[in-house]
Amino acid sequence: MTPPLIFDRLLLRARRKRGLRLGPETFLLDQVADEFAHRLSLVLRRFDLVVDLGTPTDAVRTALLRGGAIGTMIALDPIIDRPDRAARTVWRVVADEESLPFADNTLDLVVSGLSLQAVNDLPGVLVQVRRALKPDGLFLAALLGGDTLAELRQSFAVAESELESGVSPRVAPFADLRDMGALLQRAGFALPVTDVDRITVRYATPLRLLRDLRRMGAANPLVERRRAPLRRATLARAMAVYAERFAEPDGKVRATFDIIWLSGWSPHQSQQKPLRPGSAKTRLADALGTAEIPAGEKPER
Predict the structure, then answer these.
(1) Which of 31, 70, 227, 266 is 20 to 30 A from 169 (CA-CA)?
(2) What are the counts of helices (DSSP H) followed by strands (DSSP E) for the chain?
(3) How many CB atoms lie within 10 A of CB 72?
(4) Residue 68: which region, alpha, beta or left (left: phi > 0; alpha: psi -120 to 50)?
């Protein structure tokens, strides 16, 4: 079954190239890279063969290479001419995140920073990653999700409902945290873990947020986007709604970015496994120091 085309991948690459030309805005990725380094520092092992899957800058691999527990690093990047501070120590593979060129059971670690929220078949990508990992290999990713840019979405919806013939998708849909653990399990990962970091950024004006999104290469990449140019009146109304509804007491406006973290291991016999139902040797009532009440009975008051 072919997955639905939600994102225009060619347009996404063009917008990321434009962001590079404008001078990329990297504060989100820099923060994510620091968190990658921290999380992997808690895993006491060396990863000999590592793939950075589609991270839009070199921030994650630069941070990981400083940690000293990384052997060979491969950067999979759909943009061939992207600058890379770690170029001398990183092998580069030009490919799309939706089609991985790695053999099964070859990788020790796969990381991805703020890239996978824009793939059309996330379940399929997760399956490919799990197959490419060696047994007991680790997958760690961060992607935008949850209520990311909810303020911008609401502001454009109000403006277009007032001034246009209808509301069009201006902000990409984002995955929900509750769905991510199920996707990891469906892909065959063991010990799946998901959590979310909420980052609230304050801007002098909503237009400053739009400027940053352009420099991130994160302007609207949806296939079903409205093709007509955005009218000045609609933009002005959206920015006014944003300032009215989401301003702080000092006049600055807030923008929400939810970073969803995913981690999972390729299955291996050495990993911890849940106990079989009925195999417990101690009753919960004994551990709690209370009387056990059979199912269907109500406690006395």
Answers:
(1) 31
(2) 9, 7
(3) 13
(4) left
The answer to whether the beta carbons of residues 244 and 141 sit under 8 Å apart is no
- Identity of residue 246: F
CATH number of 9-148+173-202+257-267: 3.40.50.150
**What does the chain come to in residues?**
301
Pairing type for strands 253-265 and 190-203 reads: antiparallel
Separation between Cα atoms, residue 14 and residue 16, nearest integer Å: 5
Nearest to 145 by CA among 109, 181, 110: 181
Higher pLDDT, 223 or 76: 76
| Domains in the chain: boundaries | 9-148+173-202+257-267
CA 70 to CA 52: how far, in whole Å? Answer: 12
* Phi/psi at 260 (5° precision): -90, 130
d(CA 222, CA 83): 26
Cβ neighbours of residue 14 closer than 8 Å, sequence gap 6 or more: none
- Lowest average pLDDT, out of 117-131, 187-201, 211-225, 251-265, goes to 211-225
Q: How many CB atoms lie within 10 A of CB 209?
A: 21
Dihedral angle sign, alpha carbons of residues 208, 212, 218, 219: positive
What count of other Cβ atoms lies within 10 Å of the Cβ of residue 49?
19
Query: Nearest-CA neighbor of 67 among 87, 88, 42?
Result: 42
**pLDDT surpassing 70 at residue 146:** yes
- Distance between CA 87 and CA 153 in Å, rounded? 37
Q: How far is CA 205 from CA 2, 19, 170, 238, 252, in A?
A: 41, 20, 19, 12, 6
C-alpha 75/C-alpha 16 separation (Å) is: 16
Reduced to 3 states (helix: H, G, I; strand: E, B; else coil), residue 5 is coil
For residues 172 and 245, the model is more confident at 245
pTM value is: 0.85
Compute the distance between CA of residue 74 and CA of residue 132 in angstroms, rounded to an integer. Answer: 13
